[in-house]
Amino acid sequence: MKRALALALLALAYLAYTFRVGGEISLLGAGSSFQYPLMSRWISEYRKVNPKVSVSYQSVGSGAGIRLLTAGSVDWGSSDVPMSREERAKAPDVLHIPVTLGGVAVVYNLPELGGRLKLTGELLAAIYLGKVRKWSSPEIRAVNPGLNLPDEEIVVVKRADGSGTTYILTDYLSEVSEEWRLRVGRGKTFSFPPEVGARGIAAKGNEGVAAVVRQSKCSIGYVELAYAIQSSLQTALIRNRDGFFVEPNLTTISAAAAGAAGLLPRGDESWEHVSIVNAPGRLSYPISSFSYVIVCRVQESPEKARALAEFLTWVVTEGQRYAPQLHYPPLPREVVELNLQTIAMITSEGSGGRQQLRCNLLSYTRH
């Protein structure tokens, strides 16, 4: 992990040098692989809008993104998890900007199943705790009558790196399973319990988990929805809080966020306890989350602050039109409005002290 972070720092330093030499303003971000497909599209499209600003992003995981931001190595860190109290203590003057929504899909490789796998939260927790070992177990058969469940051991796949995707899953499992909450809890990483043993495989990034599940029969894993679709993986129906089995899609992920959209804190306040997992509603997909860009409120120069603010304003307004094409729901209007207020807080440190950023942040169409 330390070696990967060091390599990321070196790569980002090289990119920063290259962009400065080219005379352009550069913006460097790193973090969430959950965001990566959409962030890549945003960067490509924004280049057409503002060719004088070079934007680069590295998919290194939410945990690394926060560490790189705290170290001052990037202009923003992307994370699927709000910063904790301990993380904010190291970087107290930060802003949280939810830039997209997503769902964590539970993916599996059962080619002769003969139907769509259904899982409850308690059953998913039991699989990852190692208590349910075989696909043919009575617990799985009880919610999947008529399916051709093989009498084979379950290959259990998780993330190897510090991951916001893992946090969303463990946040959900902690809500629905008391045993999971007490034994494992919430976190960007977790260790397989002894009961999983050699059946457990850890892979780096959403890309890595998707690849392992695709290549391993009788496996189960979890990835952001876009990776499941890109990899042509089957996704399980998950029973939600209201008792309905739902799939992850634009409608069900949006439904999970609907109730929380108007209740979010200010961008400069703590977001530590913001969560939309296991949200009520017939259509709500229970393993859903916001995904964030986290920035330092005070930037090194007015030029950097303006470039960052204009890019983020475009992302949360015009950029949202590209989200559904990549299987991310667009942000609710209330969240867009909140984000614009947050972006307006970005300032710069000038020679005469802190200077409030002055730029036309509202020049884009609000969706």
Overall morphology? elongated
Top-tier CATH class of the largest domain? Alpha Beta
Radius of gyration: 21 Å
Contiguous low-pLDDT stretches (5 residues minimum) are 1-22, 351-367
Secondary-structure element pattern, one letter each? HEHEHEHEEHHEHHEHEHEEEHEEHHEE
CATH topology of the largest domain: D-Maltodextrin-Binding Protein, domain 2
Q: Helix/strand-derived class?
A: alpha/beta
Distance between the termini: 39 Å
Characterize the biggest β-sheet: 9 strands, mixed
Instruction: Count the DSSP helices.
Output: 13
SS strand fraction: 15-25%
| Residue share in helix | 25-40%
Number of DSSP-assigned strands: 15
CATH superfamily of the largest domain: Periplasmic binding protein-like II
**Arithmetic mean of pLDDT:** 90
Question: How many separate domains?
Answer: 2
What does the model show?
This protein is α/β, with parallel strands linked by helices and 367 residues long. The chain has 2 domains: 2-102 and 260-274 and 289-356, 3-Layer(aba) Sandwich (D-Maltodextrin-Binding Protein, domain 2); 104-256, D-Maltodextrin-Binding Protein, domain 2 (3-Layer(aba) Sandwich). It has helices at residues 2-21, 36-49, 62-70, 85-90, 121-129, 138-143, 164-176, 178-183, 205-215, 225-230, 250-258, 302-316, 333-343; strands spanning 25-31, 53-59, 76-79, 94-108, 118-119, 155-159, 200-203, 219-224, 234-235, 237-239, 245-246, 288-296, 298-299, 347-350, 353-356. Strands 1, 2, 3, 4, 6, 7, 8, 9 and 12 form a 9-stranded mixed sheet that branches. The chain has a 3-stranded mixed sheet with strand order 5-10-11. α12 (302-316) packs antiparallel against α13 (333-343). The longest helix is centred in the first third of the chain and has 20 residues, at 2-21.
